[in-house]
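Figure 2 data, in text form.
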Amino acid sequence: MKSVKEEAIITDQIDDNLTLVDAPEAVDQINGSFYNRFPFPWRPKSLDCTSDPDFARVMLNQNLGDWTHQTVPLQPRIWVAGCGTNQAAITALNYPTASVRGSDISPASLELCGSTARDLGCTNLELRRESINDVTYDQEFDYVICTGVIHHNADPQATLKKLMKALKPAGVLELMVYNRYHRILTSAFQKAVRLLAGTESAVDFQKELSFTQALIEDFPGKGIMVQFVNNFKQAPEAQIADSLMQPVENSYTVEVLEEMANRCGLEFRTPSPNAWDRGADHLTWNLRFRQPEIQQAYEKLPDARRWQITNLLLCEASPHLWFYLKRTDGPLRRKSEQQICDSFLETRFKRNAVSRRSYVLNNENKYSQVRSTLSYPGLPANPEMRRIVEAAAGGTPMSQILESLRITPDFDTVNNLRVRLTTSAGPFLRSIT
């Protein structure tokens, strides 16, 4: 019998697109067919990597607040679970000392991913056609990446348990699931199209695509849905399908995701500074209130409660639910954001200065390397942050640099600087170990 809280969580999901949910095997088959018809994502025009083979691993560790760069080891085993058309290839390119495995249920996606890997010269990637729900991996991987996947499964909690079991005791899981407040319009549109097409119980992707394209071209009525649908007028077919035609879609709030993670033997480590939130300038989950008493009360809360408040108050403007998680039975204790900021202030940094090479998609739909290279990452556009980077010469702790620049080291300021200067979202500084 489910508890009152579990029933409340289930009730909270009634607005999701779950009409096709059946046995996990049946949903796997539907998802496999969907991504075979609409391989996602479409191939980007260019792909980049740095000249330093350890760059991505170092920045990943700094994302986690590890200034010693030891959490994810030098030669990690990485699993990209639900790799789609390119994520495993991009991971193999950026982690050349790693052993990378990519899994997906779509043959078309795996074929494209393999083609990209060959173009990039990646020899450290193994691709497997398999469902996350069927794997038997047990404490095999130092780093598991699963972004935008489990929310399309029949039982996301069971899928998440598979990811947890695949992690080594000290391993890191990078997980992204849909933010409830980001998916209100998409889920509503998906369900409406399925009702119009009469495909609530039997999928017909071509019929749904026809209805969807017709609605994009000429949407009836007024309101926020019109503005939303208009964004897809020039979109690639794969983007239209992924956003407006998903067969199964669960979505979450911070609270619901944390509850599910805990039931799977996982806990939050830190938010992941991803490219989407960087583009929208939503790189941290922390708010700054003008009222001192509210700010003090907010900052006294545990991380997950602060993030929950941010999720509730910002709603559709809150960041993506994109987090690093750890096993609760692992050997390392979780550090709070405040503790990570404290250690950031004590750490000495130097500027990152590497070169970056690019691979461009040519007329034959293959990637070829551009001969010229560029210095990377340069300097921040923000003048204050630029002064901090210029002052980081290796011998001075960050606390002294901020003091010399008369920057008040309150929690929100320090955390913002940490994320924008020392993580993959702003890889300007590397800690000296």
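Caption note: The longest strand covers residues 167-177.
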